[in-house]
Structure formats: structure tokens, C-alpha cells
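In full, the data:

***
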Amino acid sequence: MDAFEPALARFFEELGGRQAMVLATAAEGRVSARMMSVVILERRFYFQTDRTFRKYLQLCQNPNAALCAGNVQVEGTCRELGAPGVCPAFCAAFERAFPNSYSRYTRLPEERLFVLEPAFLKRWIYEDGAPFQEEWDLRCRQYEKRPYRTV
């Protein structure tokens, strides 16, 4: 049996529907990172930002981005969807998960919604105290779990 789908389903179930995550973006030789309120819907990562901010401009120039939280790393490609209101499912989930951010920012005229389509996922797990790395290549549908060994 192929381990990819069951392991991926377990990953997203354990990650949950919301996370405070660091978003890393880069353009014109400059890398930047910042905390974001992220909603996870249908195995995609959604966040909103002001279109006057550096991260917005960097994503417009280079849609490749990364997210991380705790023991989880996500790499993928971002796409702007428009004002957050274009996605009612995002708005409902964001309001439940981050009510203060929703009420303060979501309806502002400069806010824009992005979705990050993951291409690569990695996380550290521990089994019986031993560290393991799990990796998913979503484009090739490959999964690997290997013990971490020091030299």
C-alpha cells in the first residue's frame, strides 16, 4: 500500500485548520520573514495581507514562498485571489480562528487574500523518544520517513 496519502491525511489532521506561521518571501536579492495568521482549507494555506506591504510586493515578483510553525515546514507557490471577500470559506474560517484580525483587517480596501499551494512538506516527529523526519513531495506524490542520525 502507498504510504503517501494516509501520511498526508494524518499530517493535515494533526496540523489543524489554523496556525500562526512564519511566512518567508524573497525578491530582488532580499529575503524577509514575518508572522502570519494562516487558515488551512482543503490542504491549502490561506492568509491575507495589505497590498502596500513588502511581502505583497515580493509575492507579486516571486510567488515561491515558505511557511513554518513549530516542527513543520511548508514550501510552495502563492497566488493572489483578490480581496478576502472573494472567498467566503476563508472569511468564515478566519473569523472563527482569528476574530480580532478578522474584525480589524479583513474588510480594509487594501487587504488581499493569498493561497499557498504546497509543493513540499517536512516535519520532525518523535517515536519512543527517537527523532524522525517526515517529508512529502506533493508534485511527485512521494513520502519518506527516516530516522535522524548524527554523524
